[in-house]
Each structure stands twice: as C-alpha cells, then as structure tokens.
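User: Mind token order:
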Amino acid sequence: MHLRQLRRQPLRAALAVLAIAAGVTLTVAVLVAQSSLDRSFAAYNSTIGGPASLRVVSRFDHGGIDASTLTAIDKIDAVQTAVPLVLTVTQVNDAHGHDELVAVVGADCRAEAIFGTRGCDPEALARATDADPPVIGTGVRNAAGSNGVLRTDFGDRSLQGAPVMPELDRLNGGRVVLYPLSVAQVLFARPNGLDAIFIVPKPGVSTSQLQTALAARIGPQNRVLQAAEPGSNVAFVSSQLLPFLFLISLFGLAVGGQLVFNTMTLSLEERRREMAIASALGGTPATVTAGVLAEAAVLGVAGGALGIGMGLLVARPFVANFSQFSEQAAGIHLSVNPTVASTVIGLAIGVLASVAAALVPARRAAKLDIAGELVDRSRRHDTSTRIRARRAVILALMTGSGLLMAWLGARNGGLESWQPNVLLVGVILAFTCAFPLPPAFAPFAVRWIEKIPVLQRGPARVAVSNLVTETRRTSAVLTAIGAAVGMAFTLGGVLPGMTDGAEQLARATSADRVTVATLGLNNTSAIDAKVSPDVQAALGRLPGVAAVEREYFAAIDLAGVGPAAITMNDGRPNHFKVYRGINVEEAHRQGRVMVGPGLARALELRPGSTFELPGRFGIVSLTVGGIWADPDSLGHGIYASKAVFESILGPRPASRVLLVPQPGVSPAALAETVRAARVAPNLKVFDPDQVTAHLSEDFQVFLTPFWILARGLLVVAFIATASTLLLAGVKRRAEHGLLAAVGMPPGDLGRMVLVEAGLFGVIGTICGFIGGLIGLATFSLASTSLTGLTIPFHLNLVPLFVYGLIATAFVLAGAALPAWRTSRLDPVVALRYE
C-alpha cells in the first residue's frame, strides 16, 4: 500500500527525493574532497616509495633530516636499503610567463631500490653540476615548453634539452623534476639535508618492530611514518577547513529532512481512511509504522543515490580549490577521487535523514481512531491559529549562550587551556541556532505584517493567513531561504574584515618597507623558488635602498601540538599586539622568544616559561619572553632572533626580502624603482598598500568552498519552496475550491500562491539578515583562534540584497508550477467529497 503510493503520486515523491538529494549532494561533495586530498598524497608517497614500507621524515620542512641520521639508519640490521631523498616544490615557467608548481625529487643510485633498476652510474652522478638539465616528466615538458626554465633558490635553470622520462608520468601526472641528490641539495639550499628516507626492510622483518627500532635511532626531531601515509602538509585543510564545511552541509541535509517530514505528514493525512480500513482488516500499529518507514527509506535511497551523483559533480570545484593548497605544500595536483566509503556514507545519510524525518508521521499514523475515521468524524488537521513561543525561546537562549561562550573562549587571546573547547562549542551552538532562530519568530512577525493595508484584501490576505496558520511549513521554508541568504551575508561581511586583518598584518610585518619576493606572500614557504643571493645583492645596490632585510620561515610539526612555525627577521622585527610579557626587542636582547597564543595555550606557556624544541641537531631549550598575536599557523608561531633561529635549524634561504628606503624616499617610489630596474624576470614587488591588497585577495581564497555551499543552499531553498507550495496546494484543495466557488477568479488564485512565495522570499531575506548578523558576530569573536588573524566585525549589505533578490527569484520560480495548478483548479472536483 505504501510503496504503491509512490507510483500514484510521482511528482510528490520526486520532490521529496530532490529535497534529500540536495542535502546529500553537499555532504558527499565534502567527503569526496577529503578522500581526494588523502588519496592523492597517499598515491604520491606510495608511488615514490615502491617496495618501501616506512619512511623517515623530519618535524621540520626544507631538508630537516641531517645526513648523520642516514648513517644511523644504515646500522640497523633489519634495514635492507635506506633511500635518501630531497622532496620539494618549485615553479616551472614557460616563455610566455606562465608558472606552474611541480614536484622535485633529488635521489642517488640507492633510489633504484624503490624506483627499479635504471642503470644508474654513481660516477656520472658525482660529475653532475647544477648547470646540467634535470630529467623531467611529460607534465613538466608541457608546462615549460621548449624554452622554459625551472626556478630554484639560486636562480633559474634552463630546461632546454632536458631529457623526458615517460616513467615519471605515473607520478603526479608527470609534473616531476628529477635531480641527482647532491645537485638538489645545492639548488634548493639543503646542505647535508634530506626531506625523507624511505626504508626497504629485509625479507621477513616485521614493520612494527622496524618502526620501533627506527624511532629509537633517529632522534625526537624526526618521525617514522608508513610509506604512503600523508604528512602534516595536509593538516590545515583536513583538520581546520573541512569540518566546518561538513557542518554546513549537514544543515542543508536537515532542511531536506524537514521537507520529507512535510511530505510524509501530508501524504498520510490524505490516506487516513485508507489506513483505517487496512487496520480494520487486521493491520497492526507495527505494520503501519513499518510501512511508513519503508516508504521513507525508499525515498531516502533514491535521494541518496541522486545526491551521490550530484555530489561528484559539485566536488570538482571543492577539489580544485584544495588543490591550490596541496600544490603549494608538495607540488601535488589533486584529482577527484571518490571512495566506496563516501558513496556508502552518502547513501546511508540519505536513508537515515529520510527515515528520521518520517518517525513522527509514522507514530501518528499508527495511533489512528479506526472507528472514527471510518465514519469520518475524527479528521485532524495539523494547522492551528495558535502560535507557540517555546521553540523560539529555546533557540534564542541557545544562540545567546553560544555567543557568550564564543566571547569567553576568545577573550584575552584565548590563552587558558579551557578556552578552545568553550569557543568551539559556542561557535557550533551559535551557528547552528542562528539560522533557525528568526524563522521561529516569523509567525509572530507575520501577525504584524498582515495588518499592512495592501495585504488586507483579496489574494494577499489569504496568502498571509496561510503563513500564519501553517507555522511548521512556514518555518521550514524560511529556514531554507534564510540559511542561503544568511551565509552569503556572513561571507560578505567577512571579506572587508579580512582586508582590515590583512592591513594589520602588513603594518606588523612590513611597515614603511618594500617587500620583494619571487612568490606570493602567503602559504608559499614550502616552494623552493626564493630570491637568490645574487638578486638580493643587486637589490641592495639600487638607488634609494638604505638596507636589505630578510625574513626567514620554517614549518614544524610539534608533538602534541601539530603544525607550528618559526620565524626570524635579520632587520627590524615584526610587531604584534602583546598579550603578556615583554616586547620583542627586549625578548631578543635576553635571548628569549615570542610565541603565539595557540602555542602558549597548547603547551601551557607563560612569560618566563621554558620549553624544549627538537632542533635539527638536537634538543634546544627556549624561554618565553612574551605572548603576542602572531597569526602564523593559527597562532602556533615562534618568533626568534637570528642566533636562536639558526641554532634550531641551521642556515636557510630567505622567504622574502624587505628593502628599507633611504630618508626622503617613499616605499611607493622605491617600489617603482625596483620594478623599473628589472633585476630578475620573476620578481614581485609590493609597497605596504600592495602587501595589504595581495594578502586580502589571498585570504579570500579560503572562502571559496563556503561560497560554493552558499550557492548550493540556494538550490535547497528553491526545492524547499517548490515542494512545500505544491504539497500545500494539494492539502488546501478544498479551501481553494471553496474560494473559487464563491467567486475568486483563477488569476487571483494563482496570484495568491505567488504572493505567498514572494512573502517567503522577503521574510526569508530578513531572517537571513538576522541569522547572518549573529553568524558574523560569532566569526569575528572567534576569528583570532580559528584563523590566527583578527578579523573585525564589518556590516556589508550588498551580498544581502544580491542574494536576497536571487533567493526571492528562486522562490517565485519554484512557486510558478503550484500557482499554475491552483489557477486551473476545478471547484466541483475539489469540493466533491466535502
């Protein structure tokens, strides 16, 4: 009986399926993005490692493994071959100025143990120099063309005549450059430094036992990983960005579940007599419940399957965005890699959401008054003129609690150990409740709206009355519309806030100086295409340059903390707001370091605290001078003097160069002088204002996935309105028939539905404004802890109006079919059984 109903009402079933599919689409897209990230890195590592079962990596980037570690590994009996490698990222540039990030591998003849025998000649490798072209993959040749160059830390190297090895095409799509190990160490500034040592064990050796033996020999500054295991270079996306995207996608799924609830409620309301007859003939309450849930499960399976297919398409822009991070971290270009798990989870989520939405309607159906239904004296209606405030009050209290917890969690830099947990709960609570909150109050607002003179006559009056009496339906549609508009409004406010944050960062790191780099100014520390020493010397000789300062950066994976950063300037130091302790100049005079709030919280540090850091050459003890608002690695930064920095890491290439203008020369004028000099073809020159603009643009890349979700929620709003108004039209067929019978023209019947939809769009936009304000305030409170950057509250109404108009247009488009069907209603048919 229940499954037959799906065939009898295909449009209604299709709308329910689309509602579930819209929510599943966003969830599957995020899951596929996660699997694509993990599998691409795993495939890269396993392809390089071949038969190796383990690899040793440093806790530091940029050749952090000292060559002495290789000697210690070679002495372990269980090791058959230890293969030392340089693994880094650089740029390939063609003759037209187009850059592409590629992976670099530096290896010697020991690499035959993992790559296979290729007739490697140790003497030939020993004679190789940095002037010799590398071996490249087809992807590099396509990117560089016949006259391209390879960027290095010591200048460009021509790729003209570079031999192409087709075997490299199975690695990162052929975007690979292969150098002799000693040459790679020179060109990419790794004196006696390695990035990885792949371990091929002797036959019969237990991997776990070998891992234990290696850990005992390599020192705390290094780690032992499975050969294919992704490293810490994917930690930001997988641990920070994706969880928030996943939570937002679940919100879309919750809206879809609400629509299934509405569908099942209406469908069962129409079939009350049919179910009463079935019960009279022997059907038990359990049978009725099982039938309703089976019907919902079928809808969930169909919606989940459709959502999986759509999710694979939506995942492409997600993966393309995340690929930018992976290319900067390791030169790895991501491709869409769905897994069986993401497919199964998508299908399961669709079924669970649909079945959960049908539980309440199923329970009601199982409690029918059989005798009353058979004589038609207990017909129930789920409409009511009474408006309950309990849900609205609860949501208001939860939203207020979330804002309070977010404020407490971020207060004073969030230095206490309890603050991150309080902050996280507060952010989730505020964002989860902010968007359902205004729709919960909407029925009260509609009571005032219906007093507007233009809405007190004809179709408009009936439309407003429908909003008041159908409170559950009204809240569901307004939540869907408000979420889409509200997210866009929140993101629109974050954008100018990020510009302010970028300006603060520029003032703290490069005030009154000209910044010169070969790369961007953010997330490029892993790319070995820095300003060469020769170019730095040439810059110092330009007119108007008083001094050349350099900034140095290192990434570290701290045990128990995660990704962190160590920074140093050999000139004027950075200046951030100091939460506790002494200023940076005094700290450096005392041989102390400044630390970010995230690191201070994670290690429970205070001014004067001492902590140990596993440096390249052994354990280094550091003393905290002050805790300040350093945004590096989400507040997990260490700022040291040159002497302390080099005691931890040894020499490194400068990540960027700062030019100090001579007295009377402005930074903007000096920047023009540097550009006109054309010291090197790939130099990027920024005055302080341009640093702000560049950082702001780069920060906004992080918002791209959220914009995708905001647009996806618009589609959910369209489906919500279309399905809800269609179902409401079926439910109110008798009412519409009565209106037609007493003289309402067909055109007015159709306009009534369109007015109702228009009110949905307008009120939903207002709901989005209120929910977006709460979301924006929450993000501003939590921005320092969540992103490392202080992002002030900014009110930007342009996205509200733009997305409000788009959402209203979507809603009216969704109402077109219900309006048309209502205008063609035959009152005789509609009133036949009344």
